[in-house]
Amino acid sequence: MCKVNIYITLKEAVLDPQGKAISQSLKDLDYDGVNDVRVGKYMQVELENRENAEQKIEEMCRRLLANPVIEDYTYTIEEVV
């Protein structure tokens, strides 16, 4: 069995109004030095086995989990003992 950690973020060129609102709120709360905030998604997927895991995750991300027009994704795969 393996656990996949998937991180989905907006592409750099895409505006992130939620991130901007959080950034401004942090400044309003006197957290100085915050230059920018980008908001994304984090998911964990457990697969029965590691065989073809990368291929499966790539396909899942392209077809359902991420919008490839506006989002990028990365992932890590961990063996579960």
UniProtKB/TrEMBL annotation:
Stored InterPro entries: PurS (IPR003850), PurS-like_sf (IPR036604)
Listed pathway(s): Purine metabolism; IMP biosynthesis via de novo pathway; 5-amino-1-(5-phospho-D-ribosyl)imidazole from N(2)-formyl-N(1)-(5-phospho-D-ribosyl)glycinamide: step 1/2
Catalytic activity: N(2)-formyl-N(1)-(5-phospho-beta-D-ribosyl)glycinamide + L-glutamine + ATP + H2O = 2-formamido-N(1)-(5-O-phospho-beta-D-ribosyl)acetamidine + L-glutamate + ADP + phosphate + H(+)
EC number: 6.3.5.3
The keyword Transmembrane helix is assigned to this record: no
Family, as annotated: Belongs to the PurS family.
Family matches, as HAMAP family: PurS
Protein role: Part of the phosphoribosylformylglycinamidine synthase complex involved in the purines biosynthetic pathway. Catalyzes the ATP-dependent conversion of formylglycinamide ribonucleotide (FGAR) and glutamine to yield formylglycinamidine ribonucleotide (FGAM) and glutamate. The FGAM synthase complex is composed of three subunits. PurQ produces an ammonia molecule by converting glutamine to glutamate. PurL transfers the ammonia molecule to FGAR to form FGAM in an ATP-dependent manner.
Name of the protein: Phosphoribosylformylglycinamidine synthase subunit PurS
Organism: Salimicrobium flavidum
Encoding gene, per UniProt annotation: purS
